[in-house]
Amino acid sequence: MPFIVDSVKRDLTAVVEWGRQKMQEGDYEKATQHFCMALDLRPGFLQALVSRGFCYLALGEEERAQRDFADVVQKDAGFNRNIYVLMSLSLKRTGDLHGAIRYLNRCLSLFPNFKPALLARGELCLKVQDFERARSDFRQVLQDEPVHLVARRGLADSLRGLGNFLEALRQYSRGISDTSQAMEHQLEQQDQGPEQEEPEEEKLQPEARDGSENDNGISALPETELPQDSPSKHSNEDSPHRLQISLTDLGGHFVVMTVTPPGKVTRELKQLRRSLES
Q: Which homologous superfamily is 2-277 in?
């Protein structure tokens, strides 16, 4: 019996590793096939469900992605905090904005300071015109990271929605100033050459606890990214903020970050400021 168990573990490890390799190559269809095989070997294997759901999302198969993500949450609500952000992105693509917000509410009840969830909920609240909650979410991000450009712009947008145009104008101006400083700092770093950066493990420690499946040494996902505007059968709108989902091999978890090109932020903020000044 131990020999059979070890054999299954070796097969499972190999199948998941092949799936990871295909994800690295951007071949999500082949990767999906490998993760399906892994789930045949071990039904309900959470890391394979996370990986397959991500592949489905990358392929524009939102309904299938939602089933995998919902399965993970049902089996272990605290397994991976990023599942909720991925699920909300999937629901947003299919037009279920309120459903997306509900999943983010669940995420933030478990992980109250998870910035990607706060940012995602803030953006969705702007879309459904819940400006008060949007303002609260963006402010919470800015309390911890005052020079967060997306949160600064989101705060200004929510204030504008609430009719506080003077404070919105002040926040847009602050965003322009912060963006200009960020661009200057970036140029200075380029002139000075690359600096020694701290290891990724130090910078991107996930708050979510390790899943029970991690004891077999299999990491769920390779380092890759899924842009919000990647092809989708249901997506028919572009967000001004690009949601970049960065996956890093840290104990089987991945980190989600919202980023916007500084130059684009400056142009958008100046345009919004002019509209308030006119």
A: Tetratricopeptide repeat domain (1.25.40.10)
HSE-CB at 162 with a 13 A cutoff on CA atoms is 19
Helix H, strand E, coil C: the string for the chain is CHHHHHHHHHHHHHHHHHHHHHHHCCCHHHHHHHHHHHHHHCCCCHHHHHHHHHHHHHCCCHHHHHHHHHHHHHHCCCCCCHHHHHHHHHHHHCCCHHHHHHHHHHHHHHCCCCHHHHHHHHHHHHHCCCHHHHHHHHHHHHHHCCCCHHHHHHHHHHHHHCCCHHHHHHHHHHHHHHHHHHHHHHHHHHHHCCCCCCCHHHHCCCCCCCCHHHHHCCCCCCCCEEECCCCCCCCCCCCCCEEEEEEEEECCEEEEEEECCHHHHHHHHHHHHHHHHC
- What does the alpha-carbon distance between residue 8 and residue 1 come to, in Å, rounded to a whole number? 11
For residues 62 and 219, which has the higher predicted lDDT (pLDDT)? 62
Q: What is the pLDDT of residues 136-148, one digit of tens each?
A: 999 999 999 999 9
- Given this model, what pLDDT does residue 193 score? 67
Q: What is the pLDDT of residue 55?
A: 95
What is the distance between the alpha carbons of residues 183 and 43, in angstroms, rounded to a whole number?
49
